[in-house]
Amino acid sequence: ARRDRDRRDREALQTQGDAAAAAAESFPAALTRRYTVRFVPRSNQRAQAVREVGASQIGHLVTVRGIVTRVSDVRPAMVVAAYVCDECGSEVFQEVTARQFTPLTQCASSQCGPRARGRLHKQTRGSRFVRFQEVRLQELTDQVPMGDIPRTLTVHCIEGAVRTLSPGDMAHVAGVFVPQPYTGMRALRAGLLADTLLEAHHVRPLKRRYDELAATAPADMHLRLAALGRGDAYTRVARAIAPEIFGHEDVKKALLLLLVGAPAKRTREGMAIRGDINVCLMGDPGVAKSQLLRFVATVAPRGVYTTGRGSSSAGLTAAVLRDAATGELVLEGGALVLADNGICAIDEFDKMDETDRTAIHEVMEQQTISIAKAGITTTLNARTAILAAANPARSRYNPRMTPEENINLPAALLSRFDVLFLMLDRPSAEADLQLARHVAWVHTHGRHPDPVDPADAVDAELLRHFVAAARARVPVLPSDVAEYVVGAYVQLRQQHKAAVEAADARRTLARSAVDSGAAPATRSAIGTTTPRTLLAILRLAQARARVRAAEAVAIEDVDEALRLMDAAHVTLDARPAAGERPARTDTSSAIYALMVRHARTVGGTDAALPQIAYAEMLDRVRDAGFSEADFSRCIQQYEDIDVLQVNVTRTRITFVSAS
Fold first, then answer.
1. Residue 585: its pLDDT value, please?
2. CB atoms within 10 A of CB 491
């Protein structure tokens, strides 16, 4: 009996050893599985911000909403490592469940003796790899509390989830929130702390691209688009842009053409001609420029909103960072790169530093960004339309000064805008009454007023599909329309020439006056007609033809483009309205009277006026609506008659005589 019991024990041990060896030599399930399991969240599950995901949700399926800032290359990630023994030739497999693992070195097969274990050699051909991509997800602007910086979350995409996101996309990412322990030297410094990441299971982009919208539009949307195209779609859709904002019909039409754009062209020699339209809104504070920018950036499938004061050249173009996974230097695209094939809205354009503003010159014309940093020399695509808003340099727009003196932007940058609108806040009893009623209605009901005709109602989703359908069209330019454009351009050039000659004649008459003090007429680079004006007319006309769903550009499209540009130029040449105090003809006398009043306020008398600071007086003269050239001319004239004296360093002004 004792012998039988020992024999049964030996057989059981042998059976267990054979089973273990067989398990080691058999194919693991991860190697033979031909499918992947992914969880899709429920439709009513609320998407959370990055800062809302906490430790209580570790191991749970969560949905995070954010914008993609960085996407790595798709790399192979090992899930099963295969080895071959150099003694017995057996294949041994090892499942990899962590980011780092320790490779096997000795063979555990039953064919190798218990004392002479063979060495294992890794075989790449027998191993199993999956597609792996790392995505950096950042909080949206409306999710960041005041004074905080946006938080980021690392997302790991595997197999089917790769290549579904691009930098600049806004998306809902559902996955398992898991901790990831640090490795290497970082593990020694971190101790018990661990990093967190999201293993993506389902990705849903919030804003699809124009081509995807046009291809996946439902049947009812096609019916609504057909009904919208039967009437005056140009005016009806333009009214749907920021309906909470009252008025600004021509500005909204220009923004609609900016959304639609013109088809880009490339010559046989490889020269690219941009089709995106650049628009600049300038004028008084409080005329809803920022609200228009935010609406356009929200409606566009790929829109980025930024401000001039909070943007640097690296933040607009690209920054050199070190990849956490590989340790290599990589480029992370800025706002202009994230807005590729979209719209970049830049508010407070005049508040940007000059060194940061020069980064936009290349983007607005060539639509590329040339980078030469840290040994990385490349050219990035920035095929984006620029929508900028600028405030006057002196609180409110002064019509007696040129647009350059009001906006304080270089002419080389302003000439790159196709349309420049000046939005003035002029007092008017009728317009103010309508505006006040509109604002009161919006604040009472919490929405914009309904149109008179219900058929004219255009929501944001219909607007996106309309723009997507319009951008799919490529209207041609007939020869007769091309000749009409040429004639219109030549006529504009002749009008500009006549205006320049008249300005030169007025300047000559002003110089001939002995003590007139009249400021010479200055040329405005904004109102000039250049070859860029011809390209702007063609782009606006082609965008108007896209809106009409036409296959060719018509003369009416060119007329509308000329009307928009003329409306913008009329506002740029604004003069004081009826009832306002006109500009004084004797500019030097007005400036001298201003200087005398300022000297009296600092303690002077008519008999003895004190010295005043040159820089302080220059600021007061600018605030009064005069230019620096007017101030210098006044100083020169009164120095010639020994009334004023200015020191060599031009810091102090002394009154010699108060008469």
1. 43
2. 12
